[in-house]
Design a protein that fits this description.
Helices cover about 40% and strands about 20% of the residues. It has a single domain, classed as Rossmann fold. By secondary structure, it is of the alpha/beta class. It is built from four helices and five strands; from the N terminus they run E-H-E-H-E-H-E-E-H. Strands 2-1-3-4-5 form a five-stranded parallel β-sheet, with helices on both faces. Helix 2 runs parallel beside helix 3.
């Protein structure tokens, strides 16, 4: 898909979201939407088409699971990429098609986006 792909980033950490958006813009991606909460991400999924949905850590695993299930139902073409911290936490790896460690996201995300199409 390349830089023409539409990307939704859902992560509760504002600095991380903004930095990741700027990183993707610098890489040539132009269609990027940001969501702080699962509720906000669901609203965006109802309003727009996305090629990638990047899901960050949420306080409740059930929220991430709900977001993934609804995203897949609304937009089956969208690839789900989970952004996970390296420190131990509750995380269901079956939620995502690809997993990227937040601590290494700038080293690996572009490759994941390019090879996930």
């Amino acid at each position: 898909m390349g830089p023409s792909a539409a990307i939704l980033i859902c992560d509760r950490e504002e600095l991380f979201r903004e930095t990741l958006m700027n990183f993707l813009l610098a890489a040539g991606y132009q269609q990027i939407a940001l969501a702080t909460t699962v509720k906000e991400a669901l609203r965006l999924l109802h309003q727009n088409q996305f090629d990638y949905v990047l899901i960050g850590n949420t306080r409740l695993l059930s929220l991430a699971r709900r977001l993934k299930m609804i995203a897949q139902r609304l937009q089956p073409q969208a690839r789900i990429v989970c952004m996970k911290s390296a420190w131990p936490q509750a995380f269901d790896e079956t939620l995502c098609q690809r997993i990227v460690l937040k601590e290494r996201i700038y080293e690996s995300l572009l490759e994941v986006l390019e090879t996930s199409s």
